[in-house]
Amino acid sequence: MDIEKVRSRFIKHFDGKTGNIYMSPGRINLIGEHTDYNGGFVFPGAVDKGIMAEVRPNGLNTVILYSIDLKDKTEFKVDDPKGPKATWARYIYGIVQEMRALGVDVKGFNAAFYGDVPLGAGMSSSAALESCFAFALNDLFADGRISKWDLVLAGQATEHKYVGVNCGIMDQFASVFGQKGKLMRLDCRSREFQYFPFDPQGYKLVLVNSKVKHELVGSPYNDRRQSCENVVAALNKQFPDKKYETLRDATWAELDAVKGAVSEEDYKRAHFVLGEKDRVLAVSDALEAGDYETVGKKMYETHDGLSKEYEVSCEELDYLVDIARENGVTGSRIMGGGFGGCTINLVKDEVYDKFIADAKKKFSAKYGHEPEVYPVVISDGSHKVC
Questions:
Q1: Under a CB-based contact definition with an 8 Å cutoff, are residues 337 and 167 in contact?
Q2: Residue 297 burial (CB < 10 Å; 0-12/13-18/19+)?
Q3: Most buried one in 134, 162, 235, 310, CB count within 10 A?
Q4: Which of 36, 150, 171, 266 is catalytic?
Q5: Sequence-ordered list of residues with C-beta below 8 angstroms from that of 344, at least 6 positions apart, any chain
Q6: What angle do CA 362, 364, 365 make, to 5 degrees?
């Protein structure tokens, strides 16, 4: 990221004095989709793209913000009960309020920031923005005493209370806790997590963005969550002595035992979730062994499950994964909630150029526009740059 870009704009829009520069990254998720609300595991990592901000206390009770990307400036009082109207500023306003709720004596400050997280690519630019300012305010006004987990939860609460997005914790968790060369297996139930080495020599990790987002009738995410809950209810009825909170508690034998008591669609959804639980654990073992071929195989299996069992893929994403298979890409799958967005691809160096060229050419010929390509490197979480 461009430190001079932030510094020059900060000096221009404020009083010529400089502050501290902070950075928080976006994230990828290698494997583990639609597992969070089923009490399962996710496998994110921070990337080398994110949000960078220069921040300096201004001696006032006012927060003055400049968005470099939007060329927009706004301000609000630290104790303003309503906050700014601009959506981008509400993320920062929410962090100010949540840090104050944690007992931090937040004072007024000036800040300029920009991001190089591609919008619409499912890399969580909003979580990077929240994490960047939470880390900065912790450093400036609390001497770093607020725990990383409280910074994560402040970001999540900001989404819930001030932006109106009922998100989980994976995005903020990855942005705050990320480490260079490591992915994290997060238990969405207990919040326990473990670092796993991710340094695939001879491979690149790349996102291919279809730039497609299908408009959907109804509530597809809610429908799938309901399917999972339907199966859990059937399990609790069939096995009253065992308490099932989520599908994570179910075995394959128990799922098969209730197959006749649930709809075919609900069974397919649950079948994917149990398979994904197993795949995440298999990838954990493979990463520790440096076995990236198995990692790739499990990525393809996840995509097939998301496409055929969970039914959250779309024609364009399936086509990108087919192109990956044709080009000998080690692993490829849809990344994120579905119905558009990106594939995440683990690609050997020797096939990388041909795969990217093929994906652009074939996708453009079929759908009328080129996909966007974002190589990513697993990098550190929230930190002070200078």
A1: no
A2: middle
A3: 134
A4: 171
A5: 28, 29, 30, 205, 206, 207, 299, 332, 333, 335
A6: 65
Question: CA 383 to CA 386: how far, in whole Å?
Answer: 9
Residues 64, 75 contacting (CB under 8 angstroms): yes
- The structure's pTM equals 0.92
pLDDT, position 222 = 80
Residues 220, 334, single domain; the answer is: yes
Q: pLDDT (tens digit, 9 = 90+) per residue, 277-331?
A: 999 999 999 999 999 999 999 999 999 999 999 999 999 999 999 999 999 999 9
* Alpha-carbon distance values, 65 to 21, 73, 108 (Å): 14, 6, 11
Confidence band of 215 (pLDDT split at 50, 70, 90): low
Does residue 279 share a domain with residue 150? no
Looking up residue 334, the CATH number of its domain turns out to be 3.30.70.890
Same domain, 183 and 37: yes
Q: What are phi and psi of 33, to 5 degrees?
A: -110, 145
Residue 22 is part of which domain span? Answer: 3-199+380-384
Spatial strand order in the sheet of 193-197? 41-42, 182-187, 193-197
279: which residues sit within 8 A by CB, 6+ positions away?
A: 31, 32, 298, 301, 302
Residues 260 and 177 in one domain: no
Q: The tokens of 60 are what?
A: 């006032």
CA distances from 345 to 95, 188, 274 (A): 33, 24, 23
Predicted confidence band at 221 (pLDDT cuts at 50, 70, 90)?
confident
**Residue 46 · residue 135 · CB < 8 Å:** no
Rounded CA-CA distance 80/92 in Å is 13
Do 151 and 267 fall into the same domain? Answer: no
Q: Is 171 labeled as catalytic in the residue annotation?
A: yes
Tracing tokens 């074939």 back to the chain, one arrives at 362
Mean pLDDT across the chain = 95
- Tell how many helices (H) and how many strands (E) occur in the chain: 11, 13
